[in-house]
Write a sequence for this structure.
């Protein structure tokens, strides 16, 4: 289980990284914390010709207040979010979710941007950012784009990102003091990938009521108007997410959604 | 014995081996460094069953890629049983003509690093004609399907039958419960994989194979058979080994390959199994199927068991335990700790296109306990009794000990009913019944489960010779040497890989000689330095190696008395050995063991001329009074909460009441029970290697093949009953495997207890959320239909 | 490539391929074999080391990505006071058997003790989820960590 041969570059600026990525074509791949890519390389499931290490780029480490949102640099580690070392605009939801990602040793190196770019359908940020209607900020040779997180993932390990674009960060709306949220991850063991993720966030001041059926093997399924989400509506959402009533998958996703909603509603 | 209680037999002595492990100084096979050492990677079969049309080496790689055609003179691994009807399945160390499991070795690639060896492996081209795979053991033994070995008439390695006439019982039993029960295939998964470093010593004309092995002397015998060189030209060294559990109790085809390669190249070569190889090629244990019927009286007393059982034995016969040991064991131990009037059991060892079976901690006992104890609970439900009540009615009582059971097993000692009663008491059954009635605030369902078993350990010749496999145990030797400075060296051929033998055997020596355990050095697991042993398996070391060490120390004691007696001018019998000194009884005249040894080795002029020249070194053997084995036993009792929305199970309390006879080191015994129980919890709830219809293993990472972690294993409460075995040196019993035997049964019984009124009864391990929710849905549908 | 980093307080250089993991660089190039490799995909935790003071998986971290970093392995914790207390507690509580998971377990345990001084048993177990042990059933490991946490509280 040793990685295949590849070349390695550690550019000193974001622009240099974008140039390397554009020049490298299909054979070039970005690496940040490497916590998703590392295992894939060791299994030889990815065989890049060139790895471009962007972990320490200062442009990806910035966190800034954007007024009604907070921009979290793509290089922010899960552990930094868990520890509250960066601002959490969701009043604790980001940090609570961060704590459940893999294990501490992985969270110390794994990054927000890396996890989103890898786009595992069961990954926490992929699902949570869709729930929060966050914007993913990407830069390429022709400039910067903002992508809706809910539409960012196209399918398993596939995103809307162009081959020469780099995620620079995520813009997450600030939830108000009246916001309520709930999140339930169903996995067999702490740290393992989710079999189901349910999410619910309601912020009357933002006029936001969204629900999530996540970890569905595909892009997350979001109910954008979830104000009156009762049990029949939850069943309906899970069915629309692709799991027919009566199946095991339907049952666990329904239970996860129900528990997330109950948590948000303080039940 | 009292003067040595603090450090001798019975002491909770801290482990001598901890210091090096706690500082990262353990020396595992992967840590061995040799000048010029090359790394090996194997090309393995990507399919479960195929004819090999060709294996093509890319041009330029001919000298670094080897196939079976290159391995001239190397014989296949043969592990036959002498039992009538056993079908032989010799295993070529690299595949010849056919592959019969995913992961089977096809070619060996060698390079300066493992990464480069893997690069070469990707350039070997396989031309395979895929054949239909035999995947399911139940279908495998039906006539007419594809065959794993074309030269065989079917896929049955061996069929056995124990056949009582049950017709009267069948006709009269008030209760009859029949169940079809399955256990999943598992991968033992010690934290360290297998590994081999081989090199050839030209001066000694000797092949040295460092291997993460539990049974180095057996590996040497097997290497000799396969490589065609005499055993004196082979040395097998098992260094520190990162967990065994049975996974490393085997002659590996990789070992044979590397032995050949080291001799051919004249350079050291290394292969370290990675986790992908382990999961994809070596999920090799536990897969059983039972069609079992229990007969009982109206009040639940067990009358008879009638069972047809299949064990999935995989594609080949592992050396030395063979492809049939486990199924044969099923028929001999299925009656468990119970008395019964009738017993019938038919077993099949089924060949499939899966990895060859190896005995995992508990071997067949885990599956057997699962099948039997689920049926006993079903009988209790049918009789309307508490599960412990029906068990008490048929457990072998203490007054019947020693007891010969229905399959002629000799239960040496113990109080089985007391273990059960105490487990029920410690768990506090009424408390749980009350809580169950009340219901959980979060809607989960509470259940209570029990399982009881007895574990034959350290069994010898009379048990094993009948199976006629390549290894028959019987006796054990120890070489003991009191060094010139008074340090005691002990040499045993078994191997310690977590069991703490470096500590417990020092305690045994202390018990006999009074030598401080800090001044005892255990040398183990090296065929060049230790007496022959069948090695570490079958919960045998504390009984067999412990007995050997005690016997050798007794002999050393005799000689110390003789020498010291001469020096202090008293009779040897007037001396007392304690605290590292030899003292004249009733006086304060004494000399240290070091002084005695000093005189013997370095100042012999002080000794009279007629002193016995045998000296302070001896090899002594040990054989139990009778070799039918010690029978430790335990009752496991647990309470669980079942989440019927998600299908998850939380263990709320877990109690083990265990009888390991005399405990040499209670701390280490507890550690064995804790660790075994954790593995049993893995069997019960998490661990499973599924295969698809083409024989592809479906869990290739530890995220898919789930080992229990710290959040899955509860705090386990242990109580001991200490009934000394009449058969062993100090009364100790083998307990290494016990923890892993009962948890699947106890936990499943608890789940079934929680779900009984919903009409759900789980009969397959592990109980995954998918299995549980599927069963709940099926029961709902049945209730709806009814 | 030439890799320059500090290992256990000493500056070192090694020639490694870009594909070489930190674990292999430590074990095969720097002969520091105390760090064991268990799964090479980041799940088992046997290879956990400290990179710039924080636990990390050395099996899925490229050595070249650690250029300039401060790496500490089990061999570099001989004099560390928390590791010393943990070693004592691990021996007293029988928190190890075969020893293979132990170096990674100690690195994680040390992090728990320093980062979560108020952790109780459930939190300790949760934090241990990324370190698998096949021998002990975790009983002794959990007890040992709780013991050190309690000792440090008493000591203030």
């Amino acid at each position: 289980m040793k990685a295949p041969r590849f070349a390695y570059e550690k550019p000193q600026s974001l622009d240099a990284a974008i140039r390397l990525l554009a020049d490298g074509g299909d054979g070039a791949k970005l690496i940040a914390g490497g916590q998703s890519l590392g295992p894939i390389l060791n299994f030889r499931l990815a065989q890049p010709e060139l790895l471009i290490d962007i972990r320490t780029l200062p442009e990806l480490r910035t966190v800034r207040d954007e007024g009604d949102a907070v921009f979290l640099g793509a290089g922010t580690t899960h552990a930094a979010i868990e520890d509250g070392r960066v601002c959490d605009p969701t009043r604790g939801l980001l940090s609570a979710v961060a704590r459940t990602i893999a294990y501490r040793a992985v969270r110390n190196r794994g990054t927000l941007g890396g996890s989103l770019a890898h786009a595992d359908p069961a990954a926490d940020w992929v699902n949570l950012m869709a729930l929060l209607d966050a914007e993913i900020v990407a830069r390429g040779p022709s400039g910067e784009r903002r992508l809706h997180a809910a539409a960012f993932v196209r399918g398993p390990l596939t995103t809307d990102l162009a081959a020469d674009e780099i995620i620079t960060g995520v813009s997450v709306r600030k939830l108000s003091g009246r916001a309520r949220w709930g999140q339930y991850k169903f996995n067999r063991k702490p740290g393992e990938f989710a079999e189901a993720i349910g999410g619910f966030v309601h912020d009357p001041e933002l006029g936001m009521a969204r629900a999530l059926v996540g970890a569905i093997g595909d892009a997350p399924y979001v109910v954008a108007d979830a104000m009156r989400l009762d049990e029949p509506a939850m069943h309906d959402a899970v069915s629309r997410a692709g799991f027919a009533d009566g199946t095991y998958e339907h049952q666990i996703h329904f239970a996860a959604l129900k528990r997330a909603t109950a948590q948000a509603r303080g039940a | 014995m009292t003067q040595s209680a603090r450090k001798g037999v019975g002491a909770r002595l801290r482990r001598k081996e901890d210091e090096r492990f706690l500082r990262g100084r353990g020396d595992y096979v992967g840590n061995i460094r040799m000048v010029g050492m090359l790394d090996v990677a194997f090309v393995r079969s990507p399919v479960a069953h195929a004819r090999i049309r060709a294996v093509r080496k890319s041009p330029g790689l001919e000298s670094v890629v080897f196939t079976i055609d290159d391995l001239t003179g190397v014989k296949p691994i043969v592990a036959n049983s002498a039992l009538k009807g056993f079908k032989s399945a010799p295993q070529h160390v690299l595949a010849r003509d056919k592959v019969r499991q995913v992961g089977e070795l096809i070619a060996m690639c060698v390079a300066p690093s493992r990464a480069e060896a893997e690069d070469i492996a990707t350039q070997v081209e396989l031309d395979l004609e895929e054949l239909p795979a035999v995947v399911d053991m139940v279908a495998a033994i039906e006539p007419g399907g594809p065959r794993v070995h074309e030269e065989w008439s079917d896929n049955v390695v061996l069929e056995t039958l124990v056949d009582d006439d049950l017709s009267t019982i069948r006709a009269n039993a008030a209760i009859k419960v029949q169940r079809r029960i399955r256990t999943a295939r598992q991968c033992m998964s010690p934290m360290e994989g297998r590994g081999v470093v081989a090199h050839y010593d030209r001066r000694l004309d000797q092949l040295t194979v460092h291997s993460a092995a539990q049974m180095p002397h057996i590996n040497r015998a097997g290497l000799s058979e396969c490589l065609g060189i005499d055993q004196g030209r082979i040395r097998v060294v098992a260094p520190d080994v990162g967990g065994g559990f049975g996974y490393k109790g085997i002659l590996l085809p990789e070992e044979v390959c590397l032995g050949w390669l080291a001799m051919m190249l004249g350079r050291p070569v290394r292969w370290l199994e990675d986790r992908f190889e382990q999961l994809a090629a070596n999920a090799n244990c536990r897969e059983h199927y039972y069609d079992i019927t229990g007969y009982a009286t109206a009040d639940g007393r067990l009358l008879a068991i009638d069972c047809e059982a299949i064990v999935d034995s995989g594609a080949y016969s592992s050396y030395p335990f063979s492809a049939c040991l486990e199924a044969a064991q099923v028929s001999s131990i299925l009656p468990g700790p119970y008395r019964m009037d009738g017993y019938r059991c038919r077993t099949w060892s089924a060949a499939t296109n899966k990895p060859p079976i190896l005995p995992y901690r508990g071997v067949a006992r885990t599956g057997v306990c699962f099948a039997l104890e689920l049926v006993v609970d079903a009988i209790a439900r049918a009789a309307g009794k508490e599960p412990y009540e029906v068990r008490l009615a048929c457990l072998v009582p203490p007054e019947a000990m020693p007891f010969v059971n229905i399959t002629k097993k000799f239960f040496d000692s113990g109080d089985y009913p007391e273990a059960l009663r105490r487990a029920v008491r410690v768990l506090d059954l009424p408390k749980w019944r009350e809580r169950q009635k009340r219901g959980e605030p979060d809607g989960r369902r509470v259940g209570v489960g029990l399982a009881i078993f007895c574990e034959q350990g350290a069994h010898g010749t009379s048990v094993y010779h009948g199976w006629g496999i390549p290894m028959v145990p019987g006796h054990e030797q120890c070489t003991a040497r009191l060094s010139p400075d008074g340090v005691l060296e002990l040499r045993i051929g078994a191997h310690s890989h977590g069991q703490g033998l470096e500590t417990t055997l020092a305690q045994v020596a202390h018990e006999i000689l009074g030598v401080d355990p800090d001044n005892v050095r255990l040398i183990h697991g090296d065929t060049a330095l230790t007496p022959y042993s069948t090695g570490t398996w079958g919960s045998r070391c504390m009984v067999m190696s412990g007995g050997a060490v005690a016997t050798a120390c007794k002999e050393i004691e005799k000689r110390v008395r003789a020498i010291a007696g001469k020096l202090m001018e008293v009779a040897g019998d007037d001396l007392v050995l304690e605290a590292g000194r030899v003292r004249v009884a009733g006086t304060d005249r004494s000399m240290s063991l070091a002084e005695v040894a000093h005189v013997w080795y370095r100042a012999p002029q002080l000794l009279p001329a007629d002193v016995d020249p045998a000296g302070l070194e001896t090899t002594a053997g040990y054989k139990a009074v009778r070799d039918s084995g010690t029978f430790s036993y335990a009752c496991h009792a647990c309470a669980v909460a079942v989440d019927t929305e998600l299908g998850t199970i939380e263990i709320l309390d877990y109690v083990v009441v265990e009888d390991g006879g005399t405990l040499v080191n209670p701390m280490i015994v507890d550690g064995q029970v804790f660790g075994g129980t954790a593995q049993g919890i893995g069997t019960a709830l998490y661990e499973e290697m599924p295969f698809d219809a083409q024989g592809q293993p479906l869990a290739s990472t530890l995220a898919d093949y789930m080992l229990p972690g710290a959040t899955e294993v509860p705090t386990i409460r242990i109580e001991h009953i200490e009934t000394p075995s009449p058969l062993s040196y100090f009364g100790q019993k083998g307990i290494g495997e016990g923890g892993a035997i009962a948890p699947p049964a106890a936990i499943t019984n608890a789940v079934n207890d929680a779900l009984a009124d919903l009409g759900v009864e789980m009969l397959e391990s592990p109980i995954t959320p998918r299995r549980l929710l599927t069963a709940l849905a099926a029961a709902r549908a049945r209730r709806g239909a009814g | 490539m030439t890799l320059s980093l500090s290992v256990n307080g000493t500056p070192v250089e090694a020639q490694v391929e870009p594909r070489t993991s930190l674990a292999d660089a430590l074990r095969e190039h720097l002969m520091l074999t105390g760090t064991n490799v268990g799964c090479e995909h980041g799940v088992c935790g046997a290879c956990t080391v400290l990179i710039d003071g924080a636990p990390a998986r050395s099996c899925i971290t490229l050595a070249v990505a650690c250029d300039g970093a401060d790496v500490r392995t089990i061999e570099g914790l001989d004099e560390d006071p928390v590791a010393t207390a943990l070693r004592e507690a691990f021996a007293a509580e029988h928190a190890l058997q075969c020893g293979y998971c132990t170096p990674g377990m100690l690195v994680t345990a040390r992090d728990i003790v320093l980062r979560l001084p108020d952790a109780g048993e459930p939190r300790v177990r949760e934090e241990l989820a990324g370190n698998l042990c096949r021998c002990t059933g975790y009983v002794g490991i959990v007890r040992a960590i709780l013991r050190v946490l309690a000792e440090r509280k008493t000591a203030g």
Remarks:
- Chain B has three domains: 2-26+475-622, 32-131+194-241+248-281, 288-461+626-785.
- The domain at 288-461+626-785 of chain B is CATH 3.30.365.10 (Aldehyde Oxidoreductase; domain 4).
- Residues 541-568 of chain B form the longest helix (28 residues).
- The mean pLDDT of chain B is 96.
